[in-house]
Structure to design on (167 residues):
């Protein structure tokens, strides 16, 4: 063999060897997930696994069991976050009203009373609660429901919400 062919064979062997080492490293690195993925693929729930790991998804599915389909709920969230859309998707056909987390207590109580809302949902964020949400925490018209997840859930007693809300 000529020296040029020997050098080319050595280079091809080196590249194939490095590629083989990379494949072995990937198998070692993703081995535990591969077994789990194979079991999920056999059961047919590959996409559902990702959703079940999301805290907002688990919270929304727990809300489905708590809020009746005929009920109305008020959701305090920033529309820009996009989380309200996901929760609304899971809670359809329930009627919803979206309000800003910074809503004053008087307007929040008025909206709950006027719309006959039975539930108040507050998606907790990195910001402190607004004045309306803080008033709901301490008002006797709201009963907190303990659900694990990224938000607060209150059952609203509309009979305790009277007219004449002022800031």
């Amino acid at each position: 063999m000529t020296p040029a062919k020997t050098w080319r064979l050595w280079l091809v062997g080196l590249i194939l060897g490095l590629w083989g080492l990379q494949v072995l490293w990937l198998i070692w690195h993703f081995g535990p997930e591969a077994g789990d993925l194979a079991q999920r693929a056999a059961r047919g729930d590959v996409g559902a696994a990702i959703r079940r790991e999301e805290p907002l998804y688990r919270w929304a599915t727990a809300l489905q069991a708590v809020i009746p389909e005929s009920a109305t709920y008020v959701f305090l969230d920033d529309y820009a976050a996009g989380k309200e859309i996901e929760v609304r998707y899971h809670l359809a056909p329930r009627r919803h009203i979206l309000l800003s987390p910074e809503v004053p207590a008087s307007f929040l109580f008025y909206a709950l009373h006027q719309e006959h809302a039975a539930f108040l949902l507050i998606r907790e964020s990195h910001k402190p609660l607004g004045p309306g949400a803080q008033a709901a925490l301490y008002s006797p018209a709201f009963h907190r429901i303990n659900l694990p997840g990224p938000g607060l859930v209150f059952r609203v007693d509309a009979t305790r919400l009277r007219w004449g809300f002022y800031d």
The mean pLDDT is 85. Residues 3-43 form the longest helix (41 residues). Strands lie at 72-76, 95-99, 119-123, 142-145, 151-156.
